[in-house]
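job 3f2a | input accepted
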Amino acid sequence: MKNSILTVMKKEFTRFFTDRRMILTTLVMPGLMIYIVYSFMGTGLQSQFETAEDYTAKISVENLPESIRAMQAPISYTEISPDETEQALEDLKNGEEDCDLVAVFPEDFDAQVADYDVADNTAAPAIKLYYNSTQSNSQSTYTMMREILDVYESALANRFDINPGEETYDMATEEDMSAQVFSMMVPMLLMIFLFSGCMAVAPESIAGEKERGTIATLLVTPVKRSHLAIGKIVSLSVIAILSGLSSFLGTMLSLPKLMGDGESVDASVYSIGDYVLTLLVILSTVLVIITLVSIISAFAKNVKEATGWVTPVMIISMLLGVTSMVESLCMTEPVWFLIPLYNSVQSMNGIFSMEPDLVNIAVTVVANIMYAGVGVFVLAKMFDNEKVMFSK
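job 3f2a | predicted structure (392 res):
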């Protein structure tokens, strides 16, 4: 038995690792492309919504009050008359560089504010701030002006302060923030990467051999069908894990850039035990996925048909991955961890949330191994069925 399985595994490894193109497209390119794309996305998004620190905001103001002019801020005010306001709004709409914001104050604003009494139940002096949210400078200027006006308003009746000084009031630690990001994103991404890795190797190994006619030569050898199924599933699982690992590394390295703040995303908050538990879940998950894809590939007549049938299953897997982002869909009862693929997502969600449930993880690993065992039995029976294996 051992020699038969090793022979099949050696054949699959030889076929894969002697093909430089397959190594490049399956192991190297996924991680490299993900790192490049995610890094550029993070840099681009950050530059899109950030304004240079030394930038001076340009505001066109109608009826600029002295109280606002006196407040210190990197702002250049341009006073305009009521007749010029319409043109300033048009410039703002068109994204002109000389106008980031148009502010319209009531006449005698300072006097109205001084005379205003909340108890009178009359309308307070209204300030109109027009901005263009598609322009990063305009959006930043609007935010800055709102903060200035909020400070001015609170200074008029400063009866108490909220969170004074430089003390830290947010009790969330860096570990908590990293755990939140990883627990929401990584389970879904890992499911996508693992499924992609399985799709890259399994259809070619089974449906591809059917298409080329080499499966017939393999089936006439004195190898038990169960040994053949086990050998293929184990060898394909190893290759799929390597492919998924490439994508995973690319994601982990680029995630700080994608999030725009490398200080709040740190994978070092996890212990070796967390990574061991994750590895166990990943290994058992790959066995389930590769078995499922292999069975579908055995039914298919060629690689194209196999890929077409596997794609809907991959979409379902992606949807299950999204459950890690929705708290109401994250179950904790062990019975839910008998559901294949969903159990893997929730187990990884618990690990990356730094709240691993060893019972649920154990149920996940054992259940996945059992499902893989059933899949091996089904695949072996399919190898025995000539109508299935020699269908054209």
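job 3f2a | The radius of gyration is 31 Å.
job 3f2a | closed
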